[in-house]
Specification:
The structure holds three protein chains of three kinds. Chain A is mainly alpha-helical. Helices cover 74% and strands 1% of the residues of chain A. Chain A folds into two domains: 40 residues; 242 residues, MetI-like fold. Chain A is built from 13 helices and two strands. In chain A, strand 1 and strand 2 form a beta hairpin. Chain B is mainly alpha-helical. A three-stranded antiparallel β-sheet of chain B has the order 2-1-3. The chains are: A mainly alpha, B mainly alpha, C alpha/beta. Bound molecules: adenosine-5'-triphosphate and magnesium ion.
């Protein structure tokens, strides 16, 4: 046994006579590369801010563009040098509003149903369906809007009322797209409400409906608002549905049955052609991109902030 | 005055029945709304299937009988005979242009047959119906047809599937009868491979850094917050970034010119490489976040076991953490790939080509992808093209469904270790 | 205790988690090739002290120490000491068996391989498993997953895994607390057979086990009025259990026995 011990010991390249720190170059190298991989995401953000900022600056330096007119102008017609963002922004807000009108009530109802009412079996059946719904590419939703919802709307409200391209149909389908997002985040928020709170409600003789509406929902309110804000951010940035169904050509209107191009839709249409780098069109998509980036970023940060505060409540 | 317990109780309204009913009503409403959500998913699918099958009236502008050689119909002619037919019937300019795009000697017989049908016979779809119309309004279909056939004696009424094997293997074309999605599928594959090669190592590396190496200081907190925010940036913004960085600033790299590999038909930065890298940036935050979750789920005791044996950080990570996190990491990768496969807007901005009919040959080729193809066909004013878009959507959805099935199997099969 | 028999020696050791001082003023000398047990009520810092001996504490980012731990003539916490090297020479067995989800063979061979073992791995695995009294039970299933073993077998595999790289000291944190009495007995027998070549430091809640199996005993308690633990008595085991020098030790030891 003793012999064996020594024999085995010798087979280790036993530097362990010392405890001295060794410089492990490969370890440092690996750690360095992994840090760079992590740091790369900072470069991405810097890239977004830098390129959008730089080209947008070029755009605003052109003699035909003025920042004030950009923010307040009611016409976006590049060929006659009119760059007012309002028609594009209005239709972005209009499609977003229609989408939220669908997605908020339906999404919340689905969330409440799944988390409070549905049996485990029903939930196991429904959740994957929602996941599938959320995973379908948006171009498919665009196709659905144009070939199904629009004809349906035209059938219902009359062909002379509803245009072939209209913001209403795009917004409606966008609502279906965003429904699963709101439902799943809200459901997480509802599930995070502690059992003890529910039991307190039942202990006082409240009905299930009362517990859900008067105790659980208010307690999950901040999580739900975070979900809604995230949904709005998603709707503002959504592109293919509006590019296919909402119509080409900026149009300052609040009528959801008329066609009107959104910011994202405009970017797609302009860059779909062979865009030359020195044109004002090229610069204008960066200005619009900057507006999109900043507004969605702001919404995302607000939503994260709310979620963070929400968490602190229960810890 | 002193009240007894019974008296006090009577001050409460006995409204239990009402409250119970209220609860029941809402329960029903919940159920209905949830069903509505399912119905919309069903409608979406039904609508696509509805457009993929149905009656069409097909006509040829030129009588095929005029192209018979030695009594052989077009379908039975050899490659040489078909090439000859093209030479005879096209202007020499058009013929030579086709030849320089790709030598006739290099084309397969089927490609040439497609050219003959497209350039000489000129099949056209005079009218098309959805599946529902074809099934339930057959009479009006036949009425329409009998009107059409008066003006177009060669017109035939056929019940067809817009999705056929032929469509899958045929290149993109501007003629509706011959157009296929082969070019788009290959473009999607090339793009996705570049996306994975770029984003997977980078994303997993970043996740390992954040979970295993990063201490809790402000640099690392900024990195983490930044990644969470990037995940919420609209995809079209990535397209704009890709346009400025990959297509324009890095043009020498993405066009292949610094390697001397420029594709003569492209000769600029609007290449598969740019598209793949743009999508790579887009899915990077998803891959990082999913991998982080998978790594975090590896029990701490395993790491301690490794360290307790005098292993270094990387030895523990490589031998114990990663092998146990790999199912989760792969699931995340598949989800990211499904997202990338369906992305359209950023690729339009980066500069997908509207009409290419040749297979991509390298990362420096022009590109189109399946969703881009769907977008272009959907956006055409002629309604027949929407049947074709529906067919392409069906292919895309089957592809995604397959990927998701793989992800679910992976998740269930490999994650039962603890 | 002769000075050259001491393998680990602490000087005014204090261990912190952030601002919280979990262990304070520990001065003990752990003798070589003996079994030393650390006992004391829950939360008094036994695990914390044990993990300080091979710098496993550092895996908790907020933790740090004051004072010194001398091993092989060197303070383990000196700036130029490599924690990886420390753990190579001072091994550890954990409270819950934590085999790698790999084959039994791989569990034993892995550490030897990363430390550049040049001999025959098969031979090493065999002799190590024999030493850990597990060979007969697993020799036919070496390629099977270690997770298919029973809890007691898994824990002996973890001992074998630590033995394979021939550390000088083996730290064990309640190695038998998740095991049934028979498996516990096996671990105790194993400790006795290892004592010839290794120094063993074991944390235990089980008084009988400490009395039965260890040569020396360190008794830990919270310092009156604080949440910091310290060693209130350190001596040969039979002295600690039969003639304790500290009233609190006596209460604890007899309380547990009774
Ligand atoms: N990772 C940690 N972070 C902060 N405090 C810790 C940590 N681990 C332990 N502590 C604290 O240090 C003190 C000592 O803990 P330790 O685990 O060493 O006790 P113990 O004597 O081993 O207890 P037990 O017998 O229950 O295992 C306790 O107050 C505990 O709360
Ligand atoms: Mg402990």
């Amino acid at each position: 046994m003793k012999n064996n011990e020594n024999k085995l010991s010798d087979s280790f390249s036993r530097q362990n006579t010392t405890l001295k720190k060794r410089r492990r170059w490969s370890e440092s190298l690996i750690q360095g590369s992994l840090f760079l991989a992590g740091f790369f995401s900072i470069l991405t953000t810097a890239g977004i801010i830098f390129t959008l900022g730089k080209e947008a600056l070029l755009f605003f330096q052109k003699p035909e563009v003025k920042l004030f007119e950009f923010l307040t102008g009611t016409a976006w017609q590049p060929h006659i040098n009119q760059f007012g963002i309002l028609p594009l922004a209005t239709s972005t807000l209009l499609t977003t509003a229609v989408a939220m009108l669908i997605a908020i009530p339906l999404g919340l109802t689905v969330a409440v149903f799944l988390s409070e009412y549905a049996s485990r079996k029903v939930r196991n059946f429904l959740k994957p369906i929602l996941e599938v719904l959320a995973g379908i590419p948006t171009i498919v939703y665009g196709y659905f809007a144009l070939t199904f919802i629009t004809p349906l709307l035209r059938e219902i409200f009359g062909k002379d009322v509803v245009n072939i391209y209209n913001t209403g149909s795009a917004g409606l389908v966008m609502g279906i797209l965003i429904l699963p997002l709101i439902a799943s985040i809200s459901e997480d928020a509802l599930a995070a409400v502690p059992r003890s709170l529910r039991e307190a409600g039942y202990g006082l003789g409240a009905t299930k409906f009362e517990v859900v509406f008067k105790i659980v929902l208010p307690a999950a309110l901040s999580g739900i608002s975070a979900a809604i804000i995230l949904g709005i951010s998603r709707a503002i940035g959504e592109t293919m549905i509006v590019a296919v169904a909402a119509g080409a050509g900026p149009n300052l209107t609040l009528n959801p049955f008329k066609g009107a191009e959104t910011m994202t839709g405009h970017i797609v249409r302009i860059s779909g052609g062979d865009l030359s780098y020195d044109s004002i069109d090229y610069d204008s998509i960066f200005a619009l991109g900057l507006v999109l980036f900043l507004s969605t970023l702001l919404l995302n940060i607000i939503s994260q902030w709310i979620v963070k505060r929400f968490r602190e409540v229960y810890e | 005055m002193i009240r007894t317990a019974k008296d006090t109780k009577s001050l409460f309204e006995n409204n239990l029945a009402l409250r119970t009913n209220q609860g029941k009503t809402w329960h029903v409403i919940f159920l209905l709304v949830t069903i509505l959500a399912i119905v919309s998913l069903t409608l979406l699918i039904v609508n696509i299937v509805d457009s993929v099958f149905g009656y069409v009236v097909i006509n040829t502008k030129v009588d095929p009988a005029t192209l018979m050689v030695d009594g052989l119909a077009l379908e039975d002619q050899t490659k040489a005979q078909l090439t000859e037919a093209l030479r005879m019937n096209l202007s020499s300019g058009a013929f030579n242009k086709l030849n320089t795009e790709k030598d006739f000697g290099d084309r397969t017989r089927n490609e040439i047959l497609a050219l003959v049908e497209e350039r000489i016979l000129k099949y056209e779809v005079l009218e098309s119906w959805s599946l529902a119309d074809s099934l339930f309004r057959k009479n009006s279909v036949i009425d329409e047809y009998s009107k059409l056939v008066i003006e177009n004696p060669r017109a035939t009424l056929k019940f067809i599937s817009w999705l056929t094997w032929d469509r899958l293997v045929r290149p993109q074309s501007s003629e509706i009868v011959t157009a296929g999605i082969r070019t788009a599928i290959l473009g999607s594959l090339w793009t996705i491979i570049i996306t994975i090669l770029f984003a997977f190592p980078l994303g997993v590396g970043a996740a390992i850094y954040l979970e295993e190496y990063a201490s809790d200081n402000w640099v690392n907190r900024v990195i983490q917050t930044n990644i969470n925010n990037l995940a919420g940036v609209p995809s079209i913004v990535y397209g704009i970034l890709g346009l400025a960085i990959f297509v324009r600033a890095l043009e020498p790299l993405t066009s292949g010119s610094i390697f001397g590999l420029v594709d003569p038909t492209t000769a600029n930065g609007r290449t598969i490489l740019s598209a793949g890298l743009t999508l790579g940036l887009l899915v990077l935050p998803l891959i990082i976040i999913n991998s982080q979750e998978a790594i975090r789920a590896v029990p701490q005791s395993l790491r301690h076991a490794g360290y307790g044996l005098g292993a270094t950080k990387w030895q523990v990570t490589w031998s114990h953490v990663l092998p146990n996190a790999i199912p989760g990491i792969l699931t995340g990768l598949i989800l990211a790939v499904s997202r990338a496969i369906g992305e359209t807007a950023p690729l339009v901005v980066v500069g997908a080509s509207t009409a290419i009919s040749f297979d991509p040959t390298s990362a420096f080729s022009k590109f189109t992808t399946l969703p881009i193809q769907i977008y272009q066909w959907t956006a055409r004013p002629q309604p027949e093209w929407q049947h074709l878009a529906g067919a392409a959507i069906l292919v895309l959805l089957v592809l995604l469904l397959g990927l998701n099935a793989v992800a679910i199997v992976l998740r269930n099969k490999l994650s039962r270790k603890y | 205790m002769l000075q050259n028999d001491v393998i680990l020696e602490t000087h005014d050791l204090k261990i912190y988690y952030g601002d919280f001082k979990a262990v304070t003023d520990v001065n003990i000398q752990i003798p070589q090739k003996r079994i030393t047990s650390i006992i004391g009520p829950s939360g008094c810092g036994k695990s914390t002290l044990l993990r300080a001996f091979n710098r496993m504490n550092e895996l908790v980012p907020s933790s740090h120490i004051e004072g010194e731990i001398i091993f092989d003539g060197k303070n383990l916490y000196d700036r130029d000491v490599d924690p990886v090297q420390v753990r190579y020479r001072i091994g550890m067995v954990f409270q819950r068996p934590n085999p790698f989800p790999k084959s039994i063979y791989e569990n034993v061979a892995w550490a030897a391989r990363i430390h550049g073992y040049k001999g025959s791995l098969d031979e090493l695995v065999e002799t190590t498993l024999i030493k850990a009294a597990l060979w007969d039970e697993v020799k036919d299933i070496l390629k099977q997953s270690a997770l298919s073993l029973s809890g007691g077998q898994q824990q002996r595999l973890c001992v074998a895994r630590a033995l394979a790289i021939q550390p000088e000291v083996i730290l064990m944190d309640e190695p038998a607390s998740a095991l049934d009495p028979i498996a516990t007995l096996k671990i105790e027998e194993l400790m006795q057979s290892l004592k010839e070549n290794y120094t063993i430091v074991i944390v235990t809640h089980n008084m009988q086990q400490a009395a039965r199996a260890s040569d020396y005993t360190a008794m830990m308690m919270l310092v009156e009025g604080t949440r910091s633990g310290t060693v209130i008595e350190f001596d040969e085991t039979n002295k600690v259990f039969t003639r304790p020098g500290d009233k609190r030790t006596e209460d604890y030891v007899t309380g547990r026995f009774g």
